[in-house]
Every structure is written in C-alpha cells, then in structure tokens.
Amino acid sequence: MRSRALLLSLFAAAAAASHVHPHFAGQPQHQQPITEHDETDITASLGVDHTQVRLIELKPGVTKRVTEKEKWELKKTGANFMDITDYEDFYLTTASKDVYKYPPQPQHEDIIRPLLAKLDSARMRKNLEKFTSFHTRYYRSHYGADSSSWLLSQVNETAAANPLISVAPFVHDWGQNSIIAHVPPSAEAKVSGEDSSKDSSTTRIVIGAHQDSVNLLFPMFLRSPGADDDGSGTVTILEAFRVLVGAAFPLKNPVEFHWYSAEEGGLLGSQAIFTAYSKKGYKVGAMLQQDMTGYVKKTLDAGRPESVGVITDFVDPDLTAFIKKVVSTYCDIPYVETKCGYACSDHASASKAGYQSAFVIESSFDYSDDKIHTTEDKIEYLSFDHMLQHAKLTLALALELGLADLRT
After folding, report:
1. For the chain, first and last CA: distance in Å?
2. HSE on the CB side for 356, CA within 13 Å?
3. DSSP string spanning 146-171?
4. Domain named Peptidase M28: which ranges (predicted)?
5. Which of 143, 176, 269, 399 could form a disulfide with 260 if both were Cys (CB 3.0 to 4.6 A apart)?
C-alpha cells in the first residue's frame, strides 16, 4: 500500500489543479482526473469501505441501493438524496405529528427589533475565518471531528452567559458529532431539577445549519473550506444564538439551535436527531434550516435585487408563509420564492420524521453559489452584510415562535 505521505503529495497536486465546478454538481473543470485505482488505494488507506451498500431516497418513496462510492458519484451529478439506510424500518412506521398553527402576523416587534442591532457581522467573520481554516470538515475525517470540537467550544462559551441553557454533542459513530443547544422556556425547568431538553410535553422551536463540508472530487482528502456551504449558515445561527442568550427573555416554548454533522453524506446527522426525537415523543413546532447564507454576486450581476431565498417545495406551507412575514417585518431586503428539490438540506429530515419545516437560502436558487463543494468555497466571495440579514431572520423567528401560543 502506498504511504500516506505519497498520497498527500498526489492529492496536493490534484488540489492545485482544481477549479470551479458547475452548480451543485460535477467535478472541477480543470481538475486532473483521479483513476479508480488511485481512489481505491486512498480510500483503503483511510479505512473507508466504498463497497458498502447504502439505501438512498431520491424522491418521496423512490429508493435505490448503491455503494458508498456510487453514492458520492451520484452526488457529483447534482442529485439530492437522503441516505435512509439506518432508518428504513422507522420511516415505515412513523406516527403522525401535531400540526401547528402560526400567528397571523409577527407579534413581538417591540421586543425583537432592539435586539437586531446587537447582531455583529464582524463576529460572524471572525468565527467563519476560524471555521474555514480546517483543511476540510468532511464528516469522516479527523478534521471534521476537530472542527466540530471547536464549534462545540464556541457554543458552550456562548451558552455560559445563561446557566439554564444546556449544550450537548449528539454523538455519531463516524467521528464528527452534531451539536444541540437548548434554551428552556423558563427558569423553572432547571430550578426544579428537571432538564427541559428531555421534556416531551413542551413544543420545541428548532433552528438548524450543517457544520460539515465536502470536496466532491475526493471527499476524504482534498481541501474543502466550505465557507458558504455551510460555514455561513453555521456562524449565522451561532450569532443569533449569542444574542438570544444575552436577551434572556422568559420563553413560552423552548428554542433549540442544531448544528448537524454529515449533511453532505445524505442528511445523516439531522436524520439521527429527528428520528430520535420522534421515538422519544418530542414535539417540534417548527424547524428552520439556514444553509448557504452569504453569496449574492450572481444575483447582483444579473441585475436582481438582493433578497432572501425562501424555498417553496417540499416544505411546510404554513410555516413558510409565516417566515415570509418575518422577513418582511425584520429584514432590510425582500424575499424571493425559489425551489431546490427533494432532500436538498436538513429540513428534509424534520419533514420526513413528520415535523413542520422550512428552508431559506441566500438567493433565488438559480443565483446561488456555484463554488460550493470545491477548494474555492472561500470567505472572499461572501457578503457578511447579507449574512446579517439571515441572522436577523433567525433571531426574529426564534423569538416570535419562542414567545407564541402555538396551537394545533
């Protein structure tokens, strides 16, 4: 077997030749091809079994069995899917969930608007600079585990301002853990000695982003800064979490912030969490995914107004309608309706488990970042002013629904 040093040299050369691939698909146009023999040697040297058979869902009810290697080849073509291998039986018996009604209009502008001024784009930049400094955040790599540990330390540091908040890793067997921060509905939960994060009677509001990144040319090895996908969403919701923690309002509903592992592998981390929630009988009143929040260049180059992309397919229509109202009330830019297909981000895991979910992105999907999944997904191409708008939406929605009387 080749030495690791030789393999590093081989792929360092390949990385140097890499360029930008088409939107959400394909390998970099000027990337030197990697032969099947090279890939087999390298995956073996890193302990990855690419012959393992997985079950993926490409559309609702449309499944296919593929090898791990075929799964990544499929992703290169631009296909979205959920890897449901570990949850096939669960999805056959998923119980129906409560369907919640949302307020007709935002109700708490007097409380929320002053807090929006506390959101800090410079802090988001600092966090993203560190987050993208990891060679990759691929979920099976030690870099992915290291980046997750760093992120957990930041979430813990932020939560320390309020001892009632609980933060915990959600452990996965692939090495990179998801992270859950739980803001309880009132001080009573922990004062009485009970941890509300394990209370199945309360209705949680969930804000999510995925922390992993991937270089589709060779996930296990090549650099993948993942600034936009989804480092931008990760630091966006982290900043909203920081301001929410400092506000210390007595919430009616617990609010959770999730940073998912292994989204790029088929929504693996978020599926693990939402299937666990369903099995435990946890109620989720709403779930919003923030995936890619920083790229606006193609929108502006096309002469279109900077806007928040509100996904309208495979989402809950009532929650999506309320999110549009939140954007119109609290953001300085409008929203644009757009579509991204089935299983295009972690909100699909919530939906699959029976929970109401929604997804927002940086722009109309046609104008979203075409540098993702390559070495070129860098901070220099992002707008932190635009990310600030997504942070405003995140904070406003968390508080509007955290303070709402949610009814079924």
Report:
1. 60
2. 24
3. HHHHHHHHHHHHHHTT-TT-EEEEE-
4. 199-397
5. 269
CB 324 within 8 A of CB 333: no
Residue holding tokens 């081989």?
A: 10
CA-closest candidate to residue 350, choices 405, 407, 269, 262: 269
CATH class of 109-402: alpha beta
Give the number of other CB atoms < 10 A from CB of residue 106. Answer: 19
Report DSSP state, residue 231: I
Q: Which tokens hold the place of 183?
A: 């803001």
Residue 79: both structure tokens together: 């296909």
Q: Give the pLDDT of residue 2.
A: 43
CA distance 147 to 138: 10
Report domain extents, the chain: 109-402
**Chain segment 355-389, per-residue pLDDT in tens:** 999 999 999 999 999 999 999 999 999 999 999 99
Q: Summarize the confidence of residues 195-220 as an average pLDDT.
A: 91
**CA nearest to 387, candidates 238, 178, 261, 258:** 238
Q: What are phi and psi of 99, to 5 degrees?
A: -110, 120
pLDDT tens per residue, range 232-276: 999 999 999 999 999 988 999 999 999 999 999 999 999 999 999
Among 249, 237, 232, residue whose Cα is nearest residue 165: 249
Spatial CA neighbour of 346 closest among 265, 281, 279, 408 = 265
